[in-house]
Records
---
Amino acid sequence: MNAKVENSIRLTNHPKTEKESNRSPGGKSIVFMSNRGVGNWDIYKMDAAGQNVVRLTDDPAKDDRASWSLDGTKIVYTTPAQPLKLVMLDLAQK
């Protein structure tokens, strides 16, 4: 059996889809995208234990590909505005 799968721990338990997770530089938080809201894709953050889930974006467009700044204080993500936008979100504001 694949050791990566064998040692995996499920962090979320939601009936909607969650994907494209990315751990913060310090390892304390994870950002991911989910359609758990009203069906559109938004960016969420949770602690490394899978608790304290917070929706960071609330946009009718698909927000995805979240990535952390090197210091862990901001995330960047894409949204399919015309043209495609790269957005930086300051987590101190959330």
---
Amino acid sequence: MGAIKIEILNPKALEMIELMQDLKLIKVSEEPISNLKKYLETMRLNSENAPTLDEITEITEMVRSERYAKK
């Protein structure tokens, strides 16, 4: 079966999901936090000006585009 990510906006929806889980229609599991996110959260706690995940992604994409443009 397939997996989807759902953002719950209404508490009643959570009740419905729990009911479907009790009826064994669906399986709910928590999304694991990646090691990178854990590391970044730890580093941000100890730094006043740590880059955000978006800033890191932007820099990474820039470096990758420069690297692959050379080939």
---
Amino acid sequence: MKLRTRLTLITTLVIVAASLIIGAYSVTATHSNGIAQIDGSLDQVLAATEGTPSSATTKVPTRADDLVVAVALGIALPDGSITVVRQSGSVYAPLPFPKLSKKQTAAALRDYLSIAGPTPYRVRARSLGEGLSVIAAMPLTGLNQQMEGLITSSAVVVLLIILAGGTLIWWVVHRNLKTVDQMIDTATAIAGGDLARVVPSAHEGTELGKLGSALNEMISSLRLSLQTRADSETRMRKFLGDASHELRTPLTVIKGYAEILKGSDTLTVDQRTRAIARLNAESSRMETLIAGLLRLTRLDEKPEISRSLVYFSEIVKDFAYDLKDQEPARQVLIDVEDDVFVSGDESLLSQVVANLMANIRQHTGSDVTVSVSLKLDEDQAILIVDDAGPGIPAEQRELAMSRFGRLEESRSRVGGGFGLGLNIVAKVVSLHNGAIVLDQSPLGGLRTLIALPIAAEVRA
């Protein structure tokens, strides 16, 4: 059974029960009130008959123009017979006096008594002494007819209330549960793959409104999770493709020169020397690629770093002077402020500076000017590396920091790296709560700006 059917049925049953209780109470109360009025009339008549037996009936007030008598009177004799003094009803068609046994007469002396028969009566008696009793009797025909009419009208009203209430409840339930049907349709569509659907909104503050909001939040989270998963799978496929391609190149070279060395008897000394040099070079490149991948994998698997007080000024100076010493033809301008300390992993921060210097060697000529600057700016250490090389176009700078983000149209290793250096730099800087920006250098090439928070110990 559907929820709306159960709710409508239960509510209608409650209305039926309430209507029946109210109707029964109304009928019972009306009947009791009518009996009380009849009993009061009987008491008034009996009170008017107080006195001697001979004058008992003469004291009852009557009018000459009374055409309908409400209360009948009779005298019960000691032998149990009853002498009718007057009959109730129309004077032209009086109602028969109720037939009472001697036992019923005695009961009427103690309390009010209802007598059944063709004409039901309500009876009360008062003793006159000497075995005589005056009996007052009032017919219940009018009250019974009134009660029958009340029961009929109450039944009609109750039925109308039940019909109207049931219809109203069905309409209200159907209207409010329409949103539930829409939610079901939306959930079914989403289960079928239509993630663009949203649950229709209901009135705010209501249970359905809260349910709709919660479902929309869940759908948004699900959509984001699925999108994230899809993006991750896309990145993984691209990663695997790039990694396999990058590994294929040195492996192909190594395999080729290994085949050449098999016929070493026919090779000259220069050819043998070149083959061995190429094997060593490609082996070193493959080692560099694998080391970079392992470094990124560790950073992805464990995005937490061990922190200690790192003398960043010394790290920057060491790698800057290494570049200057290793390439004497290159002009390296070094402006490093002393006593710059940051909190982080010293080996990872060294990797950052090493990768920046390696990129300069890889992508600029040995005579291109380079500027390395480290300054304190309030609570941050600002490292700026400028070069006069070809730079990176603005639309490609984000790509340059992505994994395997190589800017050459071809995937050839000639003239380019593996596309891991800046990605490692960006990852490490992010783990140190820092920021990295690639921009146009005043020297004409690329500017790499890295901002790292200084150590709390120094800041205090």
---
Amino acid sequence: MARLEADAAVILTDSGGIQKEAYWLRVPCVTLREETEWVETVQQGWNVLAGADSERIVEAARQPRRPEAGEDAYAGAGSVGRLVEVLETAGESAPEAAG
């Protein structure tokens, strides 16, 4: 599924999870709902709320937005470095597997 999403020109969905995946993959998304829990995706221009209005859906799908790459709304400064540090620390304290 992720490969299909990554290769898509635009994604149409009512799924909150797929909206967020589209954002992470930098694929424009048309959401078939009137609201979203991922308002950041709309604010940054990667997601359009079209609801069930067929004209809005078709218009948004035919002219998908592709904003300039900006800051990831879900990754704070240094978050990758902190994640690596946590994983390395967890690996050092993990018990050895019985052989």
